[in-house]
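Inverse folding, one chain.
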């Protein structure tokens, strides 16, 4: 009986701090008004995947030069993926973020620095506490120059920072599917949600401490 009870407690604890354990009933219905984002003619888009998109979106939105970050799905072949479908790990998609940025204020190279500096690229298929192919690390490129920037960053990090092999996939971008509306700005709208408090906020704060020079005013 004690063993069963212990397993139940562990399972419940994992659910509380799991990105996929989210229930719509937990959502904060306040501040749900959509903020319409209109890209300017200077706006460009980059795509990254590095674990739960709630965390990744909040990190990129804290960076100077980033106009908006949108949570979604990329890297798979299944048409019209949903949160529930990609959670099975069978669609090939990863939770990803589309980063809208102004290249006059921030370079693609700096975005790559943010990407690698805000997660562990040596972890196969996941970022603690989320594991599965949908949480794998992917840096997407649209041009040969973007691919070269990513590969150079990996070489530099492999030589200077990581002893373990970097397993980040360097993948040509094909298609991005925007996630369901309740996933957008999730961390900001749900500050008291268990996963946000236990995982998202600490991950964001760790990034802020590491790269204070990249933050927007008011995000320190």
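Residues assigned per position:
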């Amino acid at each position: 009986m004690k063993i069963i009870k212990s397993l139940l407690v562990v399972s419940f604890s994992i659910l509380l701090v799991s990105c996929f354990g989210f229930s719509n009933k937990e959502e904060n219905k306040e501040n749900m008004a959509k903020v319409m984002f209109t890209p300017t003619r200077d706006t460009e888009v980059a795509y990254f995947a590095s674990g739960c998109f709630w965390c990744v979106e909040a990190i990129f939105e804290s960076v100077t030069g980033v106009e908006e970050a949108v949570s979604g799905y990329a890297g798979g072949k299944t048409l019209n993926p949903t949160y529930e479908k990609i959670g099975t790990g069978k669609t090939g998609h990863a939770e990803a973020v589309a980063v809208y940025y102004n290249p006059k204020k921030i370079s693609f190279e700096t975005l790559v620095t943010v990407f690698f500096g805000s997660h562990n690229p040596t972890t196969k298929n996941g970022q603690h506490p989320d594991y599965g192919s949908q949480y794998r690390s992917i840096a997407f490129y649209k041009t040969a120059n973007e691919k070269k920037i990513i590969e150079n960053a990996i070489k530099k990090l492999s030589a200077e920072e990581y002893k373990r092999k970097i397993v980040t996939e360097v993948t040509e971008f094909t298609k991005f599917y925007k996630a369901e509306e309740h996933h957008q700005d999730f961390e900001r709208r749900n500050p008291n949600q268990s996963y946000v408090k236990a995982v998202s906020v600490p991950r964001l704060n760790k990034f802020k401490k590491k790269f204070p020079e990249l933050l927007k005013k008011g995000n320190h």
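Helices lie at 2-16, 53-61, 83-86, 108-117, 144-160, 186-189, 194-210. Residues 33-214 form a domain with the Peptide Methionine Sulfoxide Reductase; Chain A fold (CATH 3.30.1060.10).
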